[in-house]
Amino acid sequence: MTTPRLTNAHGYAPESIKAMMALEASFRKSSLEHNLMELVRMRASQINGCAFCLNMHATDLRRHGETEMRIYMLNAWRESTLYSARERAALGWTEALTRLAETGAPDADYEALKAEFTEAEQVQLTLLIGSINTWNRLQVGFRAAHPVDETRDAA
After folding, report:
1. Using an 8 Å Cβ cutoff, are 83 and 112 in contact?
2. Which of 33, 89, 121, 137 could form a disulfide with 117 if both were Cys (CB 3.0 to 4.6 A apart)?
3. Quick one: residue 117, left, alpha or beta (phi over 0 = left, psi -120 to 50 = alpha)?
């Protein structure tokens, strides 16, 4: 277990956080499906090892009817038949951009994206991926602790 580095990182940059929240609000107005956006957020958070964000997005997915198995299998989405072509394209793009230094955003990932998403959706999805990567860096960098339901998570 790690010790938080800051107790209220958001409080030190309120205008920047306000701008991030406005960006998040813009995604809700896009044509991207809610659960697709949450799967993207969760996959990036898996790659970045952000327990705070994993807790938040798994909870949100469950609240919006996502199955436990699709949440469990997300880390192995390439080997699973549980995800649609649209979700697979989004997850591939998420991995490519989250690991940008390693991948260089391959043409194959972009072609899959282009086959499933309009140009406007491509931009929105790319901004969403950038946004979750920023949130992950805030939470991991400052060691934010995820909430614990001690009645359920006692083990």
Report:
1. no
2. 121
3. beta
What is the spatial distance between Cα 128 and Cα 28, in angstroms, rounded to a whole number?
11
Copy the structure tokens of residue 21.
């929240």
Q: Are 146 and 56 in contact (CB under 8 A)?
A: yes
Give the pLDDT score at 8: 83
Q: Evaluate if pTM is beyond 0.70.
A: yes
> Average pLDDT by consecutive 10-residue portion of the chain (155 residues)?
81 94 97 98 98 96 97 98 98 98 97 98 98 96 81 51
d(CA 113, CA 102): 19
Give the residue among 133, 124, 44, 35 at the shortest CA–CA distance from 92: 44
CA distance 80 to 120: 28
- Rounded CA gap, 66 and 13, in Å? 33
Query: What Rg, from alpha-carbon coordinates, does the chain have?
Result: 16
